[in-house]
Design goal:
By secondary structure, the protein is of the alpha+beta class. Helices cover about 20% and strands about 45% of the residues. It has 4 helices and 12 strands. The chain is globular.
Length: about 170
Amino acid sequence: MTISTTEIQSLFKQALGNYPTGVTIVTTTDENGTPVGLTVNSFASVSLDPLMVLWSIDHKVSTLETFTNGGKFAIHILAGNQQQLCSTFASKNVDRFSTCNWELSENELPIIDGTFAVLECKTHQTVVAGDHTILIGEVTNIRVDEEKDPMLYHRRQFGPIPNEFYQSK
């Protein structure tokens, strides 16, 4: 029995939608210095020496060239209580940065307040893969707020890590 492409894509979404991941917002600035950002859950570590991470961006995203040609970006690992911020940065036609507190870092990257962690990166490599481009970044600065817990994405829901997780330890 042959499975159609549509069925395979549906099963793929079902399988990966049930795989818990963290949630990030990636930011940079455009050629005019205007901050841009979007919600991303395709984020992973790559290397410890040198420190490298990766994330991917859909080719349909309006800021694709800003991110792929910008040379740097900041990855914000969201805190468990930042669902609204997550939704805002996933929305279209919204002034995303007007809904949060942020400032430019020394590396001239927009840094959003209140996140669990921020990794400032310089772009090491971009790789076109299917309908996305993978951006690999070398981490140049890290901030972590140990008082916060990161956000979790599971079954199309965003939120804090459930207390039961901690009680099972």
